[in-house]
Amino acid sequence: DTGVSQNPRHKITKRGQNVTFRCDPISEHNRLYWYRQTLGQGPEFLTYFQNEAQLEKSRLLSDRFSAERPKGSFSTLEIQRTEQGDSAMYLCASSPTGQGALCEAFFGQGTRLTVV
Amino acid sequence: AQSVTQPDIHITVSEGASLELRCNYSYGATPYLFWYVQSPGQGLQLLLKYFSGDTLVQGIKGFEAEFKRSQSSFNLRKPSVHWSDAAEYFCAVVANHQAGTALIFGKGTTLSVSS
What we know:
Chain A has strands spanning 5-7, 10-13, 19-24, 31-37, 44-50, 53-57, 65-68, 75-79, 88-95, 106-107, 111-115. Chain A is mostly beta strands. Chain B is 0% helix and 50% strand.
């Protein structure tokens, strides 16, 4: 399978715990995005990498959230001291570098986080 | 600020009937527009996109969309709906052309197909 892969698919955690999600983009894609989707809403942008550089972060990305893409390949998204409001689907997408926005973003199936 | 509005939260269409899902955008320049579909437990799949040129764009699965600048709309259409089209549909606009960055999504329209 050469699509965007996200692990785990589901995560249940207790409030206050830390969680980490992983995203493996399509191998030749330089750009990687994280989005969050809550019930009844469209995906909301969190952050964006070009290779290993984190170029943009949304105001939604509080201090408890951190994302990395150390070698410009896979990426991790960590949430520290989780809160019930963090319960959501976390989506990863990747796209090739090209004419800016002309490149289609391919989405993974997401990681569903439930904070209890 | 850029935004996308999908006025219909939920639509039910009979199988074989035609479909139109509405999308209105707010963007200062020529927008880059997309329609995605999300089935339960699945990731978002791109149906079609508009960047420039012909305002009627064809996509996968028999979908098409028409860009109307005067109405700030990019409505999705399909002439004959199949039961497998039941899913959630999202319209999106690119936040920044040059940087190729984030998509701004609408809240989505849930499509149900009745037999």
